[in-house]
Amino acid sequence: MKLAHHSYVVLLVAAALAGCGGHKSSATVVSTSPQTTPSTVPTSTAPLTALQAEATSAAAGDIPDNQVFIEFVNAKAGYTIKYPEGWAQQGGAGAVTFRDKNNIVRIVVAKAAVPHNTADASLKGLHLKSGPKGMTVGGRPAFKFVYTTQSAPNAVTGKRVTLTVDRYYLWRGGKEAIVDLGSPVGVDNVDAYRMMINSFRWK
After folding, report:
1. Which structural domain, as residue segments, surrounds residue 94?
2. Is residue 43 part of a domain?
């Protein structure tokens, strides 16, 4: 009789554990107000190197068609830009990075007398695919380069991810913004990234 009771308890515990393992909970954080920082003009001192992915799956990174975008306001650097809701944000002031899987968006703002229209030192040693290409973004002059770069090896698997990066140089009134939008090779985020760069506005 005691043995039968013990077996019944074991079955109940096993069933409870199976139920827990089959259910995933998720929570969505919705931004209800713009993110702001103090209103002094920054000068970025961080080295502007090539972007680096998280070295997960090379195919990871498609931005879905129904992705929600929210506005990021950087009052200190003096710009706004839309980015995908739920992406992790790092940095502030003169250098901000947004990440999700192997997708990376980085905005660096610094003082500049004139805008870059040739590849700068941070692009040397990388594989430039195109550029400079003159254009306008938000009604302001801009230049675009496209380059590829390798991520650091994954700490567990040792795998590297190759990123294709669209780099934009935007300039106004003695300040320059360098915007990098990177995705793994084979991932098509053209439409989402076009929307993001076209949402950039100086303030």
Report:
1. 28-202
2. yes
Is 7 inside any structural domain? no
Query: Given CA atoms 28, 34, 36, 42 in this order, what sign does their dihedral have?
Result: positive
- At a CB cut-off of 8 Å and minimum separation 6, what does 178 contact? 48, 107, 108, 109, 110, 116, 167, 168, 169, 170
In a domain, 12, yes or no: no
For residue 52, count other CB atoms closer than 10 A to its CB: 16
Mean model confidence pLDDT for the chain: 76
Phi, psi of 171 (to 5 degrees): -140, 145
**Residue 51: predicted pLDDT:** 66
**What's the number of domains the chain is made of?**
1
Report residue 197's pLDDT band, with 50, 70 and 90 as the boundaries: very high
CATH of the domain at 144: 3.40.1000.10
Which residue is associated with the tokens 């077996």? 7
Q: How many CB atoms lie within 10 A of CB 201?
A: 17
Distance of CA 8 to the CA centre of its chain: 51
> Does residue 21 form part of some domain?
no
The pLDDT of residue 59 is: 53
pLDDT band at 161 (very low <50, low <70, confident <90, very high): confident
What would the mean pLDDT of 80-85 be, rounded to a whole number?
96
End-to-end CA distance of the chain: 78
DSSP at 124: T
Q: How many other CB atoms sit within 10 Å of the CB of residue 82? A: 18
